[in-house]
Amino acid sequence: MSKQTNKSIAERAIKAHYSYKQTQSEDTAREYRRHIRRFHKYLNENTDVTLWDCHSGHAEDYYQWMFDDEYAPSSIRVAHAALGDFYKQIDKFAGRRGFPEVSVEQDPTEYATPERINGMHTESKKDAEGGDKPLTKEEVRKLVDNVPAPTTRNELIVRLLYQTGMRRSELVRVKLDKIDRDSREITVYGKKTDESRKVWYQASLDTLLNLWINGDRKAKLTADESPYLFCTSRSERMDEQVVTDVVTTAAENAGIQETIYQNRQGQNINRIGAHTLRKTFGVHFINDGGDISFLMDILGHKNIETTKENYLKYSTKDLENSVRRHGPSL
């Protein structure tokens, strides 16, 4: 089976499964489709197997990849449930209800489990007291002032994360042709949501962005061929871990890094990482009077409850007083 044929059959199966799940829950159908597509993409990019001949080892490697990429344990469990349901329905409806006639060698979720991944049962930063606490404006300034070399690139990384609320996975995938420097608008592809959205940065970033694009970036060996904002001398796109390393090193240099807890491997889990700047953007946005429904769209959340749960608890904005002041009284 050619790669293109396999892709076509896979999309047909995913579409049929989505239609089936829609009859039960639209939200679940969308969530499961996103996870199945991400697994399909993972197999294409990291293995030589397909959805039809992968096995439990591939599934567990995928769960480990999600965990290493900072997906929450709850998201990994949903991915496991989504894939399990996908293979269950293929076995049940193969050749019917829009499902292709395919033969699956083994349901890869049958013997795979996310719970075997080291760290799935450790305390998360979100659960640890103060673990996902945002930075103060003064702490952000200290981060910017203490980035490691190369300083132009790394300062741009920190300030872009803070000004836009992008995830690190989104930042490294920003393409030059998706940056409108006149309107200071960036079209972002969300690897986590498999959708695109727009974010904006402030005029204070113009000089630094121009210095990188028109200067330092051009010195990279891959610059002419790479479509990405952050290319390196060895690859067309920066690795996500580099973003984390830049932020954590800047925090250590600034003397503001904190250890939240130790995982099962005895590794220190730091309070300040790349995601901390996303959290900080959101809380500062709300505290400055930003609308939480707008924040949901900017951050690429699917559900406003996610935004409320993660960003209101650290907000100093008095919601009750805001309602009493601005709410209708008739």
Return the CATH topology of the largest domain: hpI Integrase, Chain A
Measure the end-to-end span.
67 Å
The total number of structural domains is 2
CATH class wording of the largest domain:
Mainly Alpha
Q: What is the CA-based Rg, rounded?
A: 22 Å
| Strand order within the widest beta sheet | 1-2-3
**Which structural class is indicated by helix and strand composition?**
mainly alpha
Number of strands: 5
Mean pLDDT: 87
Helix content: 40-55%
The profile of the biggest β sheet is: 3 strands, antiparallel
* CATH architecture identity of the largest domain: Orthogonal Bundle
Tell me the name of the CATH homologous superfamily of the largest domain: Intergrase catalytic core
Strand percentage lies at 5-15%
N-to-C SSE string, H for helix and E for strand: HHHHHHHEEEHHEEHHHH
Overall morphology = globular
> Which regions have little confidence, pLDDT < 50, spanning 5+ residues?
none
* Count of individual helical segments: 13
Explain the overall architecture.
Residues 8-91 form the Core-binding (CB) domain. Residues 104-136 are annotated as: Disordered. This is Tyrosine-type recombinase/integrase. One of its GO terms (molecular function) is DNA binding. A 3-stranded antiparallel β-sheet has the order 1-2-3. Strands 4-5 form a two-stranded antiparallel ribbon. The chain folds into 2 domains: 3-116, DNA polymerase, domain 1; 137-311, Orthogonal Bundle (hpI Integrase, Chain A). With 330 residues, the protein is mainly alpha-helical. The chain is built from 13 helices and 5 strands. Helix 5 packs antiparallel against helix 6 (151-164), helix 5 packs across helix 9 and helix 6 (151-164) packs across helix 8.
